[in-house]
């Protein structure tokens, strides 16, 4: 389960003897730390599978394929104790590295070159969707964690944003992550078909379509699919990266607020910004200097995709598919949130682009 994987990783090396003591090998003198190799090896195989499927079905990103591969493994065969240390490693530490490296794909000067109109559309659509969605979720009777993760995934950058928010806060569980990930896949995939059709029906120009897709569609891979098919790939991806850069401040501020609110109940001071979020911002700054060699910037997206797929496979092994199919209200919230960000960004495009 995701909860079990995260808990195991959170204890680090000192927790390993305790993990072993829970299993059948708990005998006097058996203090050897369980190996992470089996779980990492299975995650590596899952990444290879995800990359192969992505070549056949480009609209599905390797990360999304990996999530559902993990869920399928858990549902069909289960996740044994031998795999848990390795899955804990990829779902926590590898995830942090992947999110940090995501920053190397974003050059602030390129984003600023979009102009204040496009940046305003991105900021307003993202901010309103992230703020309003949890409140609607509460009215629908959804948990705080599900509402927060759906808001994060829809408003920022899909599965990566969901994973980052889940890693930085403690208000979500297995079912919350499963619901949010399913929503991102469902509505993001539908957008690949619907956004170009609606743009043609409304008579949007190619430039307007690029801004709308980048400002409204969930996953980078989904935006790329729309952009490539419509001839607006570069513009759409740049707009999307303008949303991705909001990942750091939104996750950091949310984490700080939640832990600050919890401090009076649990004591202690709220922690600083999560280290991997700070690393993400550092990578954005490094890329924005223009001093990163082209060979590095060309390779970073592929490396990030591989690491993110491995991490999300680990998270996917904690998804209970039986509970997922019962998430009707989560699907409704995802549809509402998608409608909000699509409507606000479309209005902005019509007025400003």
UniProtKB/TrEMBL annotation:
Topology of this chain in the membrane: Multi-pass membrane protein
Keyword Transmembrane helix: yes
Principal place of residence: membrane
Annotated region described as Disordered, given as residue ranges: 1-21
UniProt feature, compositional bias: Low complexity: 7-21
Domain of life, per lineage: Bacteria
Family: Belongs to the UPF0324 family.
Name this protein carries in UniProt: Sulfate exporter family transporter
Organism: Nonomuraea rosea
């Amino acid at each position: 389960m995701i909860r079990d994987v995260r808990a195991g990783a959170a204890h680090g090396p000192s927790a390993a003897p305790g993990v072993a003591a829970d299993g059948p090998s708990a005998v006097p003198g058996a203090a050897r730390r369980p190996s992470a190799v089996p779980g990492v090896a299975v995650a590596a195989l899952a990444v290879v599978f995800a990359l192969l499927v992505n070549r056949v079905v480009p609209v599905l990103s390797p990360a999304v394929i990996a999530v559902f591969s993990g869920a399928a493994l858990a549902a069909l065969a289960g996740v044994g104790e031998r795999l848990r240390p390795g899955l804990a490693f990829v779902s926590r530490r590898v995830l942090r590295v992947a999110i940090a490296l995501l920053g190397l794909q974003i050059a602030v000067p390129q984003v600023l070159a979009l102009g204040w109109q496009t940046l305003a559309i991105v900021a307003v659509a993202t901010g309103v969707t992230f703020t309003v969605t949890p409140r609607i979720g509460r009215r629908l009777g959804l948990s705080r964690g599900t509402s927060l993760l759906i808001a994060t995934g829809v408003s920022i950058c899909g599965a990566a944003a969901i994973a980052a928010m889940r890693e930085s806060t403690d208000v979500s569980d297995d079912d919350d992550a499963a619901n949010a990930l399913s929503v991102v896949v469902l509505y993001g995939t539908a957008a690949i078909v619907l956004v170009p059709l609606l743009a043609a029906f409304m008579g949007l120009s190619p430039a307007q379509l690029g801004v709308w897709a980048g400002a409204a569609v969930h996953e980078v891979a989904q935006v790329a699919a729309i952009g490539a098919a419509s001839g607006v790939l570069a513009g759409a991806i740049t707009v999307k990266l303008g949303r991705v850069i909001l990942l750091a401040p939104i996750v950091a501020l949310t984490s700080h607020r939640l832990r600050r609110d919890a401090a009076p109940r649990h004591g202690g001071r709220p922690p600083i910004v999560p280290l991997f979020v700070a690393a993400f911002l550092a990578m954005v700054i490094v890329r924005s200097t223009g001093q990163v060699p082209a060979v590095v910037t060309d390779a970073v997206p592929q490396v990030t995709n591989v690491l993110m797929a491995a991490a999300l496979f680990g998270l996917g092994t904690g998804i209970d598919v039986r509970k997922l199919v019962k998430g009707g209200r989560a699907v409704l919230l995802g549809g509402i949130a998608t409608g909000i960000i699509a409507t606000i960004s479309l209005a902005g495009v019509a007025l400003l682009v």
